[in-house]
Write a structure and sequence with these properties.
The complex is a heterodimer of chains A (589) and B (248). By secondary structure, chain A is α+β, with helices and mostly antiparallel strands. Chain A has 15 helices and 21 strands. In chain A, the strands form 5 sheets. In chain A, strands 13-12-17-16-14-15 form a 6-stranded antiparallel sheet. Chain A has a 5-stranded parallel sheet with strand order 6-2-1-10-19. In chain A, strands 18-11-20-21 form a 4-stranded antiparallel sheet. The mean pLDDT of chain A is 96. Chain B has 2 domains: 106 residues, Roll (Ubiquitin-like (UB roll)); 135 residues, Fumarate Reductase Iron-sulfur Protein, Chain B, domain 2 (Orthogonal Bundle), CATH 1.10.1060. A 5-stranded mixed sheet of chain B has the order 2-1-5-3-4. Chain B has a two-stranded antiparallel ribbon with strand order 6-7. The chains are: A alpha+beta (589), B alpha+beta (248). At the A-B interface, helix 1, helix 3, helix 4, strand 13 and helix 9 of A face helix 1, helix 2 and helix 3 of B.
């Protein structure tokens, strides 16, 4: 190893940038790879806030209560020690972000303001308007730019990770990546790599995720031998705005600031919502969950909305939509605390939510599952670390709102130093031959796609994939359709081999890039569908009406999928959950 | 006949190729935006006159107007494609890449200059380190409310595209970067680098290039008070320049 450890970080969202900052601070050298300029990463979409038990509202909040809410909210599937460590670190992370200049909202005294989010009874969520993710990402982006100016960080923006370079002992020695403009495939050596590539929304076609959130990197690593854990746990956010191109998130902070969810009591009521009297509205979340009301966790709220729409047939105007109402709240408060999200609704729907209730419906939002990592954020392949949404560690069977930002930053803060420490001790590779072999392998993959003269359009295959996965692998799951889904995924993989790219040029060819991502999406989809089919219980976001209860005796365990190259399909193992700190109890909101 | 959407797109195969126009006709769906049109073209890349073509290359990511990727000229106006709703656009919808940034391909442009500019003006708060040093400086709600709108700049570069002074000859840094100087100079810790930031805005390409056309503030998708930033920072640069003269 050279005098300075050389680390490659893939992905420049909150987790990646957090890792970069720690590595640079420790004297390591970083190459940072990102599909988009890092300031444009998906973390900017996070809206409502970041959790930390600072207890600045005199409520007696504590990091232990944050820990307990997170474990309980995750239905006891998360290993407990790392979640506790995250909750303990959260107040310090808020202080650090505050020092970096994040414009958090303030109280009259000039202290940080906090609001309530789902799955807790405490005001624990710090926020910067309703664009908290954007503000946090910018603060970290600015610190990384400072290190870049000092020559400690080198950015490779508009580059996409294709695969890890593994030596003969299956130790990671670097990466293979593609320049998205020149289409050049190149390898880059490193002592360790950290995967921070975010979510997998594109697998579901339309989701609240950004375009780059395909899960392609995670899937590539899974196909190279990394375990993928708890893939079947997919969070569907209760309140999103349906759109032609994507589902836009309507933050939980809307409910945190007093927003109420309701439908007209009469089916097909066509009146203007403002003219419907209180007595003719059904505030079903408040009725069913008197303690938490509109702030039940996301899986609970999503299933309640499904029930009202599909079982009671009370969707607005007979369509799959319910009202999220802010019109009773003072406009000034709305502007100060929620402007960013109100603006999104106004711009994309055309109505002002200060005047008229918003129409919303659940949308795929987040994956609790991801690359398996140990408590040091290390995957099972030596030299490969992971942090952020792409790994599985912090959220169990359901993530609480405003815990994602803190898990990204905390995960990055653990992964960076852990990778540096590993890099300082790793022995040199037996040979360098694997770099050339990996590059040639990826060039050959590109060549095959470019030459293929079949009859399948990758964008159309993707639409079929999205509809299939959204229908069978989201809110309500039954075994027969899940098994059929896997069969259809095999068919889609077959059809993928008959792909025909409508663009064969060698410059900024987005079609070949997308085709590569699509293949990886298809492979990872099988992990989700098969994992969901196997788990015969209901836990957090995974809900099977045929198995309506949590089954700790048989299923209090982590699903670990690994890729069997000979069979070209996932195989499964299970691992006990570390419940050493809080004994499991029934989850009843 | 079913309703349709007509789109004309200015295409360019690579940075050196010449450009040409292609026209598409898509079936209309309620709620379409420019991005969903480009997605529909990718799924069936055939021009209006039935000629097979390639999917359009364009920058995009969040599709919620917060990442700053999908800026382009839509009916001649610099704006984000995701928030350009078909129902609100005159047809045929004309899409072109930004004119003042190098074209990568089709509608994708190289706007990396803004990130270089942010580096040049040290647009960051110089913290001592990430170890635990307690809370940040106390700020009033008013200070937060002044800083937050400036901090919402998405680096889309619309303000630079529409600025008459932003071109190769002047090398003008542009409104977005100047506004970030204002943001960091007003932060209690960020102010430590105030002199360096103002110095970076002196001379050729600096704030003096601004011709007060005010196009920037009119076009900004995030309603950032850019002209206010320019006048405040301009005053501070002037004050520092005069002070520097006397100190010599």
């Amino acid at each position: 190893m050279a005098s300075n450890p050389k680390i490659i970080v893939i992905g420049g969202g909150l987790a990646g940038l957090s890792a970069v900052i720690k590595i640079a601070e420790m004297g390591g050298e970083v190459d940072l790879f990102s599909i988009v300029p890092v300031k444009r990463s998906h973390s900017v979409c996070a809206q409502g806030g970041i959790n930390a038990a600072k207890n600045l509202k005199g409520e007696g909040d504590s990091t232990w209560k944050h820990f307990d809410d997170s474990i309980y909210g995750g239905d006891f599937l998360a290993n407990q020690p790392p979640v506790k460590a995250m909750c303990d670190a959260a107040p310090g992370i808020i202080d650090l972000l505050d020092r970096m200049g994040v414009p958090f909202n303030r109280t009259p005294e000039g202290l940080l303001d906090f609001r309530r989010f789902g799955g807790t009874l405490y005001n624990r969520t710090a926020f910067a308007g309703a664009t908290t993710g954007q503000q946090l990402l910018y603060a970290l982006d600015e610190q990384v730019r400072r290190y870049e100016a000092e020559g400690k960080v080198k950015k490779f923006e508009h580059w996409e990770f294709l695969s890890a370079v593994l030596d003969g002992n299956r130790v990671c020695r670097g990466i293979c990546a593609m320049d998205l403009r020149s289409m050049e495939v190149r390898t880059f050596p490193a002592d360790a790599i950290i995967i921070c590539t975010g979510g997998i929304g594109a697998i579901f076609g339309k989701s609240t995720n950004s375009v780059v959130c395909t899960g392609s990197a995670q899937s590539a690593l899974y196909q190279q031998g990394c375990y993928y854990a708890n893939g079947e746990f997919i969070q569907v956010h209760p309140t999103s705005i349906p759109g032609e191109d994507k589902l836009r998130l309507m933050s939980e902070s809307a409910r945190g600031e007093g927003g109420r969810v309701w439908v007209p009591k009469a089916p097909g009521d066509k009146r203007d919502p403002k003219s419907i009297p209180q007595s003719e509205r059904w505030y079903f979340l408040e009725e069913w969950y008197p303690k938490y009301g509109n702030l039940v966790p996301r899986d609970v709220a999503t299933r309640a909305i499904f029930k009202v729409v599909y079982e009671h047939n009370l969707g607005i105007d007979g369509k799959p939509m319910v009202y999220l109402d802010l019109t009773h709240i003072d406009r000034k408060i709305l502007d100060r605390k929620l402007e960013g999200i109100l603006e999104i609704y106004e711009k994309f729907v055309g109505d002002d939510p200060r005047d008229t209730p918003m129409k919303i419906f659940p949308g795929m939002h987040y994956t609790m599952g991801g690359l398996w990592v140990d408590f040091n954020q290390a995957t099972n392949i030596p030299g490969i670390y992971s942090a952020g949404e792409c790994e599985y560690q912090y959220h169990g069977a359901n993530r609480l709102g405003a815990n994602s930002l803190v898990s990204c930053i905390f995960g990055g803060f653990v992964a960076g130093p852990a990778a540096v420490q590993y890099a300082c001790n790793v022995a040199a590779a037996p040979s360098n031959g694997h770099f050339d072999a990996q590059r040639k392998h990826e060039e050959e993959n590109n060549g095959m796609l470019m030459r293929s003269l079949g009859d399948e359009n990758p964008f159309k295959l993707w639409r079929e994939l999205g509809e299939l996965m959204t229908k069978n692998c989201t809110v309500i799951r039954y075994n027969k359709p899940l098994q059929e889904t896997d069969g259809k995924l095999v068919e889609l993989l077959e059809r993928f081999r008959r792909i025909n790219l409508s663009d064969r040029s060698q410059w900024a060819n987005t079609t070949v890039v997308f085709a590569r991502q699509l293949y990886n999406m298809l492979q990872l989809s099988r992990v989700i569908a098969q994992g969901a089919a196997m788990r015969d219980e209901s836990r957090g976001a995974h809900y099977k009406p045929d198995f309506p209860d949590r089954d700790d005796k048989n299923w209090l365990k982590t699903t670990k999928a690994y890729f069997a190259p000979d069979a070209d399909e996932p195989k499964f193992e299970f691992e006990p959950v570390d419940i050493s700190l809080i004994p499991p109890r029934a989850r009843k909101y | 006949m079913a309703k349709s959407v007509i789109i004309k797109i200015k295409r360019q195969a690579d940075p050196k190729a010449s450009s040409h126009w292609e026209e598409f006709e898509l079936p209309y769906k309620p709620g379409m935006n420019v991005i969903s049109c480009l997605m529909d073209i990718a799924a069936d890349p055939v021009t209006r006159d039935g000629k097979k073509t390639t999917p359009i290359t364009y920058d995009s990511n969040c599709l919620e107007e917060v990442c700053g990727s999908c800026a382009m000229l839509i009916n001649g106006r610099a704006r984000m494609a995701c928030s350009a709703l078909v129902d609100q656009l005159e047809q045929p919808i004309k899409l072109e890449p930004f004119s003042k940034f190098p074209v990568v391909r089709d509608l994708a442009t190289d706007r990396s200059v803004i990130f270089e500019n942010l580096k040049a003006v040290k647009a960051w708060v110089p913290i001592d380190g990430t170890y635990d040093l307690g809370s940040g400086p106390r700020m009033t709600a008013e200070e937060q409310e002044a800083a937050y709108p400036l901090s919402r700049c998405i680096s889309c570069c619309c303000c630079m595209e529409v600025c008459p002074q932003f071109n190769q000859d002047t090398g003008f840094v542009g409104a977005a970067t100047i506004s970030q100087v204002r943001l960091f100079n007003t932060h209690p810790t960020g102010a430590a680098l105030k002199r360096e930031r103002l110095a970076a805005l002196m001379g050729d390409g600096g704030i003096q290039e601004c011709g007060y056309a005010q196009n920037c503030v009119e076009i900004c998708p995030k309603d950032i008070p850019l002209t206010k930033s320019i006048s405040e920072v301009g005053g501070a640069v002037m004050k520092q320049a005069i002070g520097d003269l006397f100190r010599k």
